[in-house]
Amino acid sequence: MTRAAVRAAIIALLALLPTFAVYAHPHVFIDCTAGVTFSGDSVSGLHFEWVFDELFSQMIVADFDRAGKGYFTPAEAVALRKGAFDNLKNYHYFLAIFVDGARKPLPGIANFKPSIRNGKLVYDFDVPLAISVPPSGREIRVTVYDDTYYTAFDKMSPGDVSVPEDDSIVATVSIEKTKAKAEWPGQWMPDQIVLRLKRK
Amino acid sequence: MRRLSAALLLIAFLSAFAIAESPNPFTSSGGPTGLSTMPVSRGIVALAPYLRTMTDRLAELARTIHDSRSPGPLLALALVSLLYGIFHALGPGHGKTVVSTYFLARDAKVSHSLVAGYLIALVHAISAIGMVIGIYYIVRGIFSSTFENASAIVQAVSFGVITLLGAWMLFNRIRGKEHHHGSLENLGHSHGHGHERAHAHGHDHGPGQVHEDGLGHDHGPDRSADEGGLVPSKGIAAVKTRELLGIAVAAGLVPCPGASAIILVCLSLGLVVAGVLSVVMISVGMGLTVSAIAAIAILAKRGVVKVSSSGRGELSGPVRKFLEIAGAALLFLFGLVFLIVQLSGFGPL
């Protein structure tokens, strides 16, 4: 009986193996660029710009730019925010911010602005922060990633992150793999924007 | 027994990840279900740029067709849609697990995987076109969130079908013990009497012949179910038309968001024919992928059976009993768990 059970289990496992070879697949694609703002000795915020793929863009534009004008009126922008952005709060806006290794709760989103550029949907928004940079320096890591992988972010390069010249802070930008450990062999781990900040 | 339970539990756990479409984070309401935040494999991430190229091409082609009104881009749209369907269906939510689990519990030929794939494609095309066009013309307002809500209901129906199917198969299996099978081919085949090939041939093959894959036969599962025309060479109950239809409905009913997006974009440009064509081709592509995966499952099972049954190609009674019961129980459990998750996540609906 036990042998039969083991045999049945092996057959079941092998037969079903191909079905869970891949787990999730993206439907929406985003090109993300980011910016950093400083204020005094602190990082006062991050700015993100998401440019969507053609198909999702056209779907959302068809929904919210009803007249096909090529731009959103203020009322349409409000409706769009409600209908196709605000729910991302349940997905922490696809952002995870770590300050010196510790996850920082997302403070919120400001200045959300949807637009249409070359037929593509664009979201612009800020994440207000107040992260002081001590003389010893700070490391800020930001993961831009949808946990459900419904949305795929294009691979970023350091050039996608703009850092302004500042009088009191000097920053280096790199894109590195997250430090989180894989839970599964073959698991893909997302990249992080890594900001290494020092006082001048 | 314990090891079996552990293995089945593992399968149920893993398969659970691959069964449902996750909601669109932008236009749905609520957060991710615990089941949709799973580890992503490197393979699918490697595939993502190609998927992106294809979605971009689809949207561009729709615009080109709108602008040029020539048949050339329509052909390209059909081709890209087919490719998109094939690659896109490698992700979860396209019924691969349901189909494979079903074939595990049934004596299936490779041709059955094709039939299942075509049926799924048919159900998916009808469902996607019906839902998108229906919602588009009824609502005429914000489409995406309405579609998302409607999809949630359809998804619940699909899980209900899986649950019922599993329950039905379990019930039949238990009834089968008392020789109360409704269909001919089950008689004598689920009890390990060791005379699997001796009868139940509804067509012109000799009783000793073994079908390699069943391709090229002039009968689909329709006849085989009703006339006992299948060869249950492994001694497991044969595929039944009713069940196959249930599988196709369960796997194809929920429209793929990609397919719904392309048809919506076409509708918004006034291109009804292009939208329908694209969705039909996406469905065919999906059907091909599901067929291929189901065929792999069938072949994998057959391979293991050969190896583990000392070359006789037959399973011992207990193994086949376990497979039938486990497959049916898994379908029932998948369906039930997901139905509960889905219904509890409805919120204000």
Can you put this structure into words, describing what you see?
The complex is a heterodimer of chains A (200) and B (349). With 200 residues, chain A is an alpha+beta fold. Chain A has one domain: Acetylcholine Binding Protein, Chain: A (Distorted Sandwich). Chain A has helices at 2-16, 54-64, 74-84, and strands at 28-39, 42-52, 95-99, 102-104, 110-117, 120-132, 138-144, 151-153, 161-162, 169-177, 191-199. In chain A, the strands form two sheets. In chain A, strands 1, 2, 5, 6, 8 and 9 form a six-stranded mixed sheet that branches. A five-stranded antiparallel sheet of chain A has the order 4-3-7-11-10, with no helix packed on it. In chain A, strand 1 (28-39) and strand 2 form a beta hairpin. Chain A is flat. Chain B has 349 residues and is mainly alpha-helical. Classes of the chains: A alpha+beta (200), B mainly alpha (349). Chains A and B meet through helix 1, helix 2 and helix 3 of A and helix 1, helix 2, helix 4, helix 6 and helix 9 of B.
Please state the second-level CATH architecture of chain A.
Answer: Distorted Sandwich
The biggest sheet of chain A, with number of strands, parallel, antiparallel or mixed sense and barrel status, is: 6 strands, mixed
- Proportion of helical residues of chain B: 55-70%
Total strands of chain B: the figure is 0
Shape of chain A: flat
SSE-based structural type of chain A: alpha+beta
- Count of DSSP-assigned helices of chain A: 3
User: Can you give the mean pLDDT of chain B?
Assistant: 72
Task: Give the structure's gist in a few sentences.
The complex is a heterodimer of chains A (200) and B (349). With 200 residues, chain A is α+β, with helices and mostly antiparallel strands.
